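Aim 2 progress update. The chain analyzed this quarter is reproduced below.
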Amino acid sequence: MALTREQMAQRVAQELKDGFYVNLGIGIPTLVANYIPQDMAVMLQSENGLLGMGEFPTGETIDADMINAGKQTVTAVKGASIFSSAESFAMIRGGHVDLTVLGAFEVDVQGSIASWMIPNKLVKGMGGAMDLVAGADNIIVTMTHASKNGESKLLDTCSLPLTGKGCIKKVLTDLAWLEIEDGAFILKERAPGVTVEEIQSKTQGKLIVPDNVPEMQFAQAS
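Predicted structure tokens:
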């Protein structure tokens, strides 16, 4: 069974480490903020100028002036800092972010990503994605494995205009966790109940399947 958006965010949160500075892109990546372990110190950075984002606000904590790059209202943790977008991009371009989590339309076996334009469709634009993929070594892409009509988004070569070339090494889809090495997707984990055969049928790019592909593990709700 395909992962929900919340489960995808939970799986990404498992990649966080204490002391990380993390930039979360628009969409599924923003949900990762809700799954940071209580005993872990992680500072979330937003390209519009906030370092230290907290969980999404409740009715009592909402502040309409406190937003992330996707214009969603957010909270700030103790010790947070607010600054200009120019300073924010200096952090990003300077390689000071430990992990970046982005959405995408397509990723290919060379690690290229297309995330900002679909011909004949209204899209807001690239935003800070070009800077993020250029300035970060550790990037996780979150996306659905295939389009609504079943076309694979994991390709030999991206068909859409590129955001970055050869910069992606890790991809989490609603079906699988994959890493990109030597011109191929390597299947590392599969979503609970999803078969290797389903993943193979929905992956257009070269896919390497190890002998044992474990199911993803999620902490049980208390």
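The chain has a mean pLDDT of 91. The chain has one domain: 5-208. These observations will guide the mutagenesis experiments scheduled for the next reporting period.
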